[in-house]
Amino acid sequence: MKKAQVSIELLAIISFILTIFIPIIFYSYTKSAEFKQASTDMYASLIANNLASLVSSVYYSGEGSLVKTTLNIPVGVKNITYNPKESTSEIVVTLDDGSQIVSIAEGQIAKDSDLLGKGVYRITITYEDDGILIKKE
């Protein structure tokens, strides 16, 4: 009878511990996923703003100016595209979930600028006759 009582008490303790820890683990997992998405969104916004700032800087420096920089595009970012407008350009960072982050840069980005995807890139931003050109090295 004693062995059965010990077994039942052990099962009760294990079930009590699982009852407490399973919700904690689930909560931690969901918060971790939310944090990862928020950090990807923030980093993508930072990339878009930095790229827009560099493009505007080259535009205001005048024809023939150039800037070289390194961009680290993290996992979660699908690509970076450019939409030239009349006197400005939109830098569009598209995330894997389909959402987009848009930043406005002064000057028109040339249509033959390189599109960027995930990875680390050394890029050169130059102001030429047909607009601002973004090229990978």
Tell me the series of helices and strands, N- to C-terminal: HEEEEEE
Helical fraction equals 40-55%
Number of domains: 1
Number of helices: 1
Strand arrangement in the largest pleated sheet: 1-5-6
Main sheet characteristics: 3 strands, antiparallel
**Beta strands, count:** 6
Features:
137 residues; alpha+beta; three-stranded antiparallel β-sheet; 1 helix; 6 strands; 44% helix; rod-shaped
Q: Would you kindly provide a written description of the structure presented here, covering whatever features stand out?
A:
- The longest helix has 60 residues, at 2-61.
- The chain has a three-stranded antiparallel β-sheet with strand order 1-5-6, with helices on one face. Strands 2-3-4 form a three-stranded antiparallel β-sheet, with helices on one face.
- The protein has one helix and six strands.
- With 137 residues, the chain is of the alpha+beta class.
- It is rod-shaped, with a radius of gyration of 25 Å.
- The protein has one domain (2-136).
- Helix content is 44%, strand content 34%.
Task: List the topology elements.
Blueprint: H1 2-61, E1 66-73, E2 77-84, E3 88-95, E4 100-106, E5 119-128, E6 131-136
Antiparallel strand pairs: 1-5, 2-3, 3-4, 5-6
Quickly describe the structure.
This protein has 137 residues and is an alpha+beta fold. It has one helix at residues 2-61, and strands at residues 66-73, 77-84, 88-95, 100-106, 119-128, 131-136. It has one domain.
